[in-house]
Amino acid sequence: MSRKRTWGGRFRKETDALTEAFTESISFDRTLYRHDIEGSIAHAEMLAKAGLLKPREKSAIIKGLRGILRDIEAGRFEFRAEDEDIHMNVERALQERIGEPAGKLHTARSRNDQVALDLRLWVRNEIEAVTGRVRAVQSALVELAGRYAASPMPGYTHMQRAQPVTCGHWLLAYVEMFERDVERLADCRERADVLPLGACALAGTSLPIDPRVTARLLGFGRIARNSMDAVSDRDFAVEFAFCLACAAMHMSRLASDLVLMAASEYGFAILDDAFCTGSSIMPQKKNPDVLELIRGKCGRVIGAMNSLMILLKGLPLAYNRDMQEDKEPLFDASRQVSACLDVLAPLLRQTEFDEVRMREACGRGFMDATVLAEYLAARGVPFRRAHRIVGELVGLAESRGVELAGLSDEDLRRAHPLLGPDARKVLGAAGAVLSYASPGSANPAFVRREVAAWRKRLSRPAGRAR
Ligand code: ARG
Q1: What is the pLDDT of residues 429-439, one digit of tens each?
Q2: SS3 for 35?
Q3: Partner of 305 for a Cys bridge, out of 196, 213, 241, 316, CB 3.0 to 4.6 A?
Q4: Which domains does the chain have, with CATH numbers?
Q5: Which helix (H) or strand (E) holds 154?
């Protein structure tokens, strides 16, 4: 037995089963149930205030909606594909529960502004949750940075040994990246914080509503200033996807660094067994699969952002059903990023670094050459000349199979009279890192100061998004 559809007044024929299966979104937009109901409750409050619902009708609607919410959360609710989407599923259930007054809930509202509202509420909520997870990863990094604040390790450019840095400094670079992600999320929230309700299908309504009431109830900072924009704008979703992609990109780079550092060729990082997996054929293997998957999922999240932009780029105003396709990539991106952040924090907390291996690696590759050139520059030698002089010393040392510290006092003085025994202080990784003096450099003293500052900052109650 087929039922008449909510919108079925003008239809003479039943919906084809293929059409129903093809157009339904309940299989994925049920994710929005809480926001849909929260939005409907606020809408009902506003309608009552505007005189469009009697107090008794409002109470029945709100009571019915709360019951539906409870049933969904208890897993007792039956979602039906024939009711298309979350909005109609909730409305149909309300109709069944309370009868007539349910038919008044959709006064001065369209699914077009309703879905825009639900998605904005969802994004606001996800931003808060993702921010908390990024904070946990930052905390793990800061604790590691504190532990290895003074441990020299090779720094690379072009994947070639460049200059010694400290392990803590390298770790804090990622803390900075994730901080920008947190800032971007907060910024994105600003633009998501607009109530689209009241736009109705696209033009607004002739009914005497006051969206400012609904906005206040739902904690929105602003109401939409243009109804056509309100129902067709998905910038906030694209922006959230970008924030997620950016955080995923940072995790991916960190994963890449760690995969290399955990390889036996480097042997700098020691990953905990609990966050590695084995090989089905090679008994000796301990693989960094978790990190590799974090890197892999990043592609998927960037894909979601691309999908959204491509989805929107050709759409005429105002609402088009194409927009229904915004949800799956967006939901997936947020779920994947959350899963990555959730596993990354404990993985980092259990990671150790081999200070001996890192120090040994710093002992090769003439990584102190730059500070030696700077030693001369500080004493008045033009840097270009200092560069050449030290370059020649590197050539000499290389031909003898030694590092710069392995050259004799005589070799150094012959290269330049200013290269006396005092110059040896900047040689070797330990000397080099201690010589760094610029703000933001890898000097252990700076790293310790930064660690203290980050600890303080991260211990402050997470910037409550609402
Ligand atoms: N499921 C739809 C979406 O996700 C809801 C809005 C439907 N509006 C409509 N006029 N068909 O976009």
Answers
A1: 888 999 999 99
A2: helix
A3: 241
A4: 13-107 (1.10.275.10), 112-360 (1.20.200.10), 369-426 (1.10.40.30)
A5: strand 152-157
To the question of pTM greater than 0.85 for the whole model, the response is yes
Which ligand 1 atom sits closest to the C-alpha of 25?
1
| Residue in 2, 158, 206, 280 annotated catalytic | 158
> How many angstroms is it from 304 CA to the middle of ligand 1?
20
**Which residues, 6+ apart, have CB-to-CB distance to 454 below 8 Å?**
138, 142, 145, 172, 175
Which residues have CB under 8 Å from 343's CB, separation 6+? 275, 290, 294
Asked if 101 and 60 touch (Cβ cutoff 8 Å), the reply is yes
Read off the amino acid at residue 444. P
For residue 211, the CA-to-ligand 1 centroid distance in Å is 21
Which tens digits make up the pLDDT trace of 176-235? 999 999 999 999 999 999 999 999 999 999 999 999 999 999 999 999 999 999 999 999
Q: What is the CA radius of gyration of the chain?
A: 30
Does residue 279 have an active-site annotation?
Answer: yes
For 279-304, how does the pLDDT look when each residue is reduced to its tens digit (9 = 90+)? 999 899 999 999 999 999 999 999 99
Residue 106 bears catalytic tag = no
The best mutation among 22, 82, 85, 322 to test binding of ligand 1, ranked by most ligand atoms within 8 Å of the C-beta, falls on 85
Q: What is the 3-state secondary structure (H, E, C) of 250-283?
A: HHHHHHHHHHHHHCCCCCCEECCHHHCECCCCCC
Provide mean pLDDT across the span 13-34. 95
Give the closest residue to 350 by CA, choosing from 264, 271, 269: 271
> Residue 48 is encoded by which pair of tokens?
């009552």
346 CB-near residues (< 8 Å, 6+ apart): 140, 275
Smallest CA separation from ligand 1 atom 4, residue: 324
**From 25, 232, 252, 279, active-site residue:** 279
What percent helix, strand, coil does the chain show, rounded to 5?
Answer: 65, 5, 30
